[in-house]
Q: What sequence folds into this?
C-alpha cells in the first residue's frame, strides 16, 4: 500500500511541517505513530499535518494520531490538520475527534 | 460469483492479516462503483469494510483464529456485506469499540448474530440513495 510521511522542521516557526500521503490503516498505523512520535521526541514542537494527499484513514490511524497528540499536549503543543478530504473529515466528525484536533481547513481550503 | 437474476453474490476468504485489508477495501470499492453508488457512499462502504476487517483481525489475534470470510450480496440499490469468523457463543462486539462506532455511523444497518455452525456474523448494508434534482 502506497503511503509516505515526509517532514521538515521550521526553525523560525518552531513547528514540524509533515506531509502525509496515501492510505493509513491497521497495516501501517503503527508506522505513522512511530514516525510522528520520533519527530516530537527530537524537538518538542507543534505538528502541522498536511493531509491533502491522504486518500484513506481508518480508526487505527486515528488512534495513532490521538496517541501522538497525547505526547504533544504533555509539553503544551498542538497538532493542526489541514487539507482533509471530505470523507476523512467526516470520520473525524463521527468520532468527535474534530473537537480534539485543530482542523485548519479541508482540501478545498474551507 | 453466483448469479441469481436480480441478486449476485461475491465471496472472499482472507487471512486475518492486516496486509490484506486493502484488498477487501478495493473489492468493496469496485463492487459499489459497479452498482453506481455515489462517491460519498463508496467511501462510506470502503471505510466500513476496512473497520470490520480491522475489528476481526484484532479479535483474531486474541482468539488465535487466522481467517475470516466476507460475502457481498448485490441487489438493486442495496449492498449487503457479511463478515463471518469462528467464535464462541459468548463472543460479542464491544459497542464502544471505535471500529463498531464508525461502522454504525457509516452504514444504514449493522447487526451481529451467532450462526449454528459456530460462526460469529456481522452484517451491514447500504442502500443507494436516489437524488432528486427537482
A:
Amino acid at each position: 500500500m502506497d503511503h509516505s510521511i515526509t517532514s521538515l522542521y521550521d526553525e523560525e516557526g518552531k513547528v514540524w511541517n509533515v506531509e502525509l500521503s496515501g492510505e493509513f490503516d491497521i497495516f501501517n498505523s503503527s508506522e505513522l505513530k512511530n514516525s510522528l512520535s520520533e519527530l516530537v521526541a527530537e524537538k518538542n514542537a507543534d505538528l502541522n499535518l498536511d493531509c491533502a494527499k491522504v486518500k484513506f484513514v481508518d480508526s487505527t490511524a486515528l488512534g495513532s494520531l490521538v496517541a501522538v497528540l497525547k505526547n504533544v499536549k504533555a509539553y503544551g503543543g498542538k497538532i493542526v490538520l489541514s487539507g482533509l478530504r471530505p470523507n476523512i473529515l467526516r470520520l473525524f466528525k463521527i468520532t468527535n475527534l474534530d473537537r480534539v484536533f485543530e482542523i485548519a481547513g479541508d482540501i478545498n481550503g474551507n | 460469483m453466483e448469479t441469481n437474476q436480480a441478486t449476485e453474490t461475491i465471496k472472499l476468504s482472507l487471512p486475518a492479516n492486516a496486509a490484506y485489508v486493502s484488498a477487501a477495501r478495493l473489492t468493496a470499492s469496485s463492487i459499489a462503483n459497479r452498482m453506481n453508488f455515489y462517491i460519498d457512499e463508496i467511501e462510506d462502504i470502503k471505510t466500513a469494510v476496512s473497520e470490520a476487517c480491522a475489528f476481526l483481525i484484532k479479535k483474531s489475534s486474541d482468539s488465535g483464529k487466522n481467517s475470516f470470510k466476507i460475502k457481498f450480496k448485490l441487489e438493486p440499490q442495496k449492498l449487503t456485506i457479511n463478515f463471518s469468523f469462528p467464535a464462541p457463543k459468548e463472543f460479542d462486539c464491544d459497542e464502544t469499540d471505535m471500529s463498531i462506532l464508525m461502522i454504525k455511523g457509516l452504514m444504514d444497518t449493522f447487526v451481529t448474530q451467532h450462526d449454528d455452525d459456530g460462526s460469529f456474523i456481522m452484517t451491514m448494508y447500504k442502500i443507494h440513495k436516489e437524488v432528486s434534482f427537482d
DSSP finds three helices and six strands in chain B. The CA atoms of residues 80 and 125 of chain B lie 4 Å apart. The two ends of chain B are 38 Å apart (CA to CA).
